[in-house]
Amino acid sequence: MQCLRPLTRRIPIHLRPHHLRAFSSAVDPAASKDHQHHATNNFVKIVEVGPRDGLQNEKRTIPLTTKIELISKLARTGLTDIEAGSFVAPKWVPQMADSNEILEYLLKYPPTSLNPISYSFLAPNARGLDNALSILRSNPKTYQTFSEQSSPYEPDESGISNESASDPNTAPPFVEMSVFAAATESFSQKNLNCSIDASLEKFKEVIVGAKAMGLRVRAYISVVLGCPFEGYDVDPRKVAEIACDLMEMGADEIDLGDTTGMGTAPRTAELLHAMQAAGIRNEDLTMHFHDTYGQALVNTAISLEHGIRRFDASVGGLGGCPYSPGATGNVSTEDIVYFMESLGMDTGLDLDTLCDIGDWITKEIGKTNSSSVGKAILGKRQKA
Ligand SMILES: CC(C)(COP(=O)([O-])OP(=O)([O-])OC[C@H]1O[C@@H](n2cnc3c(N)ncnc32)[C@H](O)[C@@H]1OP(=O)([O-])[O-])[C@@H](O)C(=O)NCCC(=O)NCCSC(=O)C[C@@](C)(O)CC(=O)[O-]
């Protein structure tokens, strides 16, 4: 299949690393947000997806107060990006039916945080986006958009931004929207009730509408390394083709989802090479590994080696996808932070507090804590 067309946002090859930082900040506001704390290339951004991906599949209704408490606790760990909910059809994913109340709460009472936080919400179609936008419109000046992002977030000539100029405790949060395509037709039908092409048409409306409001857009592609219905053989060139489509629609970031955890090291490397060959920059990619087969950290290492610096994770290893039978949670935030620290990488996150949160939320919703690091640190503390 011939799909790999050049992207308009390629990096000129004569640019050197310090130019690249300035370049990526100029085209990607989130990149400059990262530089508020870390201008080094050993910084790894962890996006916490526990409140959405982690909870969406829970059968027992989780009280709104618990969800808000989870987000508020996470906001105090150094995280800059938290996926907070999902504007999807409640009859499909009932657990996310209170996402409107979550967004409204976050705007009216932004949790105390160490950094300005960007809260993201899924929207599968214009209806989902409209629901989110109507809340934003009813609460003007309670959130920042990336297009109006002010100078404190912009790095200076050295690539380091002026941290003292902004007080994160008083800065309104950012809001982002996420769309979620699938790499196989079967998964698209199960998850979105339509073909890949039809889903892309709907996502275009979401992306264009969100960008018109100045919102940043993440674009997931699910089942990139294995589909519960079509097996391991997912074509990486098809993934790259969908990624190009989404970027050309205006998505700011492509989030590659190993929904089933079927990914292996060689196939992760093959996928990333296909993305590179399609002209998609590492800076535009996030990896989203589920740990069903215990390969999430192996695949994370492969991605790091390839140059990826942004990963999704969920505290306590919460999660699973309603349309991926048997899939377990995301790689846990505690495990990935410990792993990064062991490699000398910097996440800016407070591992001890994350362990407490993983312990608390798993008890709260009656689940086993599936973070190995969380359990080890809590056990060690108890012994001491
Ligand atoms: C896409 C649809 C809506 C199509 O669903 P549909 O049934 O084909 O759509 P429809 O347009 O015929 O609408 C059906 C009903 O839903 C309503 N509706 C329609 N849209 C909305 C909306 N936005 N918000 C609220 N309500 C909505 C609509 O009004 C109607 O209501 P009714 O007339 O029956 O009362 C549906 O399939 C859906 O919501 N799917 C959600 C799937 C989902 O959330 N999956 C989990 C997230 S993806 C994931 O977890 C993977 C990821 C991202 O984490 C990465 C990875 O691990 O790979």
Automatic annotation (TrEMBL):
InterPro entries: Aldolase_TIM (IPR013785), HMGL (IPR043594), PYR_CT (IPR000891). Residues 144-168 are annotated as: Disordered. Pathway: Metabolic intermediate metabolism; (S)-3-hydroxy-3-methylglutaryl-CoA degradation; acetoacetate from (S)-3-hydroxy-3-methylglutaryl-CoA: step 1/1. PROSITE patterns: PYR_CT. Residues 159-168 have a biased composition (Polar residues). PANTHER family: HYDROXYMETHYLGLUTARYL-COA LYASE. This is hydroxymethylglutaryl-CoA lyase. It comes from Mollisia scopiformis (Conifer needle endophyte fungus). The lineage of its organism: Eukaryota, Fungi, Dikarya, Ascomycota, Pezizomycotina.
